[in-house]
């Protein structure tokens, strides 16, 4: 008998049915653990397939233990990007400093993982696809909790009832909107916008990133490997979120082109490539901060509940840890007690990681000439320092063992 006496004997009791919206990092990790704890899991993903490749993401601290417990560490070590150098340039393109990336990210060389987003979601999906039902190219249309479960209608037309539903549908979560209303209430804009896209690597870059800065503007090229593609990031300070621009891809291109019109270095070529890019992604830099992560039989996980912004580099790690903690909290509890335990045991970890950045103060993107000079002086000092031991926030949670591993 467990603490609450609720551990299900799957030989005699029908498996409880749960639906996860989103097959990203949080959704697939949650599917893995809920399946492990005896739930019958369905995942609905609005995209037609999983995308491979993609921008690089980090797995650090506590999250490394999550992927180790999932048995994914060897596969992810093979996919490790091994970024060797991060070079900072002045407005005229001259070098300010060249540092090992961990000095900036607060990570630990040789221990942390940096992989392409698609390599991580691919590994997570491969670990669950035989045991979990995936519905691609579909999404939740309505949620109704007035009965004994959650009645769901799908965009594709079908209707089903689940014991619980989870929103793992990212920063702009629709599940969150169904439960709690418009995103604006929870979105904490951090004062920057960014555009990211890929372009041909005509720069001779390999396993390295180069960042050009002037006050309030940054342009970075990130070469993940030796292949002929680089990721371009164009980031700029913008005091208020430009809501109209978020909804209009043409306006996004125009805005970025205007902000970087007189920029030096390789920026004119990057802006030209942005106009032709078919994978342009533009957004504001922001966090999601919510007083509660669940309502009734529906709970949120990952960016949907607590996006920390890419400035922290911790979004993926929070998604992995959050999924582990949420599923574990439901291993031997009903939804109300499980959701309460999930929040109680995970919130502090989320908060210390979100608090690593404040509005307009991102180290990589100083907004004034004075702050940029201070940043550059700091980089010069850091370039002579040995590797870091890792930021305490990254490991601020010791994972409980929810059930014996099989
Ligand atoms: C440009 C960029 C750079 C980043 N760099 C880093 C970094 O260096 N380090 C780091 O740790 N993190 C980084 N992040 C953040 C990181 O990608 C996220 O924090 C992390 O992926 C969170 O995972 P998630 O599963 O919660 O959300 P997501 O990865 O956003 O996944 C959400 C999933 O839900 C699906 N979905 C959305 N809406 C619906 C719907 N209505 N119905 C069904 N499915 C839906 C989406 O298609 C997607 O598959 C970066 C993000 C961006 C955009």
Automatic annotation (TrEMBL):
Protein's UniProt name: Oxidoreductase
InterPro entries: FAD-bd, FAD/NAD-bd_sf, FAD_aromatic-hydroxylase
Superkingdom, taxonomy of origin: Bacteria
Domain FAD-binding: 17-345
PANTHER family in the cross-refs: MONOOXYGENASE, OXIDOREDUCTASE-RELATED
